[in-house]
Amino acid sequence: MTKILLTEDDHTLRAFLTTSLRRAGHEVREHEDGESALESLEREVFDFLVTDIVMPGMDGIELAQKAIKIDPEIKIVFITGFAAIALAAQAPTPAGSKVLSKPFHLRELVDQLEHLIAA
């Protein structure tokens, strides 16, 4: 079972992803913002950080950069509706991170996680 930290400010999408990932056999901790997610990263070890990029307060790229400093082995998947704009405007994303553009099919996220697990 993989342990996933999910950070998404959209309540409906967060609830859907949490339920779906749990049904797929993953352990999921969910957060609505980067600050609270960072607190979890400081207390627990996760296999994956799945995070929205554009969020109020700490954005997903900053969260990912801090996550890598805490645990260089964590795998990162960004989910965003503004991938090209968000990534161009921000500091570089951590090496090996993946980006899924909204809307995406749940199968795409599960496939991405499985690919990263196998890597």
Can you tell me about this structure?
This protein is α/β, with parallel strands linked by helices. The protein has one domain (3-118): Response regulator (Rossmann fold), CATH 3.40.50.2300. The model has no long low-confidence stretch (mean pLDDT 84). Helix 2 packs parallel to helix 3 (60-70). It has helices at 11-23, 34-43, 60-70, 83-89, 106-118; strands at 3-7, 27-31, 48-52, 75-80, 98-101. Strand 1 (3-7), helix 1 (11-23) and strand 2 (27-31) form a beta-alpha-beta unit. The protein has a 5-stranded parallel beta sheet, with helices on both faces. Helix content is 45%, strand content 21%. The chain has 5 helices and 5 strands; from the N terminus they run E-H-E-H-E-H-E-H-E-H.
User: What distance separates the N and C termini?
Assistant: 16 Å
Q: What is the chain-wise order of helices and strands? A: EHEHEHEHEH
- Provide the CATH top-level class: Alpha Beta
Structural class: alpha/beta
Mean pLDDT: 84
The CATH superfamily label reads Response regulator
Beta strands, count: 5
- CATH topology annotation: Rossmann fold
Ranges where pLDDT stays below 50 over 5 or more residues in a row are none
Bulk shape: globular
Strand content: 15-25%
- Quaternary structure classification: single chain
Largest sheet properties: 5 strands, parallel
Portion in helices: 40-55%
Q: Can you tell me the number of structural domains?
A: 1
List the total number of helices: 5
Radius of gyration: 13 Å
CATH architecture: 3-Layer(aba) Sandwich
**Biggest sheet, strands in spatial order?**
2-1-3-4-5
